Amino acid sequence: MTVSTRQYRPEDRQAFIDLNRDWIEEYFGALEESDREQLEELEASILDKGGRIIVAMLDDRVVGTGAILPPPHDPGDGRKWLEIVKMAAQKDLRGQGIGRAVMDALIAEGRSMEADAIWLETNAGLKAAIRLYERSGFRHLADAQLWPTAYARCNVQMVLDLSCDAPAQAGG
């Protein structure tokens, strides 16, 4: 199985929405209001805010997604932060490298956007996702470092420092 990644195109919109709706409903039962807003206003909530969307392709089908954009919280530490959101892989293809391909492409996007660090939030029950993030170099934030979140389900926050000499941390 060879998965490739590319930039989002308007024709990918429904696949992005469906893949994200599927995993959120599978693990958490329902979309939260923040999910609905982001998915219903996909372009405005990500692309128009200076973000980028990556899709993973297999046999001309979108089988994975993820986005990177400026975060809603500014830690005020003078660094350029980005946030990874809406990572998803087609259910029957999970564990096949789709998440890794999307993550690698998102980190590359972050570097091209001249970010100093990348932040994400997830849920402790999503063990495979957390392993992927850890293997990608993300480190867990301590309770005192947590950022405000719009999601009830998000109880884990992680950061990736893109500078080569500073430890991963989040300010304020």
Topology, element by element:
Elements: E1 4-7, H1 13-28, H2 33-40, H3 42-45, E2 52-58, E3 61-69, E4 81-89, H4 98-112, E5 117-122, H5 127-135, E6 139-140, E7 156-161
Parallel strand pairs: 4-5
Antiparallel strand pairs: 1-2, 2-3, 3-4, 5-7, 6-7
Polypeptide structure, described:
The longest helix has 16 residues, at 13-28. The chain is α+β, with helices and mostly antiparallel strands and 172 residues long. Mean pLDDT is 92; it is low at 165-172. It has five helices and seven strands. Strands 1-2-3-4-5-7-6 form a seven-stranded mixed sheet.
CATH top-level class of the domain at 4-117: Alpha Beta
Low-confidence stretches: 165-172
Q: Assign the CATH topology of the domain at 4-117.
A: Aminopeptidase
The helix content is: 25-40%
What gyration radius follows from the Cα positions, in whole Å? 15 Å
* Arrangement of strands in the largest sheet: 1-2-3-4-5-7-6
Question: Short description, anyone?
Answer:
With 172 residues, the protein is α+β, with helices and mostly antiparallel strands. It has helices at 13-28, 33-40, 42-45, 98-112, 127-135, and strands spanning 4-7, 52-58, 61-69, 81-89, 117-122, 139-140, 156-161.
Keywords:
alpha+beta; Aminopeptidase; 7-stranded mixed sheet; 7 strands; 30% helix; disordered C terminus
